[in-house]
Design a protein that fits this description.
The chain has about 160 residues and is mostly helical. The chain has eight helices and no strands. It has one domain.
Amino acid sequence: MTTSLINFRELVKRPVCFLGLGFGSGLAPVAPGTFGTLAAVPIYWLMKDLSLVIYLAILIIGFIVGIWICQKSAEWLGKDDPSAVVWDEIIGYLITMIAAPSGWQWLLLGFVLFRIFDILKPWPISWADKALHGGLGIMLDDVIAGIFAGIILQIFVYYTL
């Protein structure tokens, strides 16, 4: 099934796919990964004041369940790694923002850094993207991109605060 044939009402009837397609953000006709990352911003905003332990626990659960969510969503769409599946971008951005300071500038910098790593896919992100398949493959390249972006974000934090 192509994303152009999916309407929001049909997506909502499939809760797993609703999550997998980022609450509908993955249906964007252009740059669905960017729109999926945008969908992560309010989630981060709700999580930002949680303790680090709870934040990390939610991320771990989101990653583990995300493997299944992405697999089921990909199967529904009939593709190995459809661009409409953006749960991986949500988790990747939340990884980027681990222990980020408060402020819109950090939220924006994390967004830009994550998108850069997710789009350019330097090694080992590119390896994970090509070598792994299924739900784990969909998730893992964005997890690695989130880790790289998070490290760069923390370097900016260290040198500016």
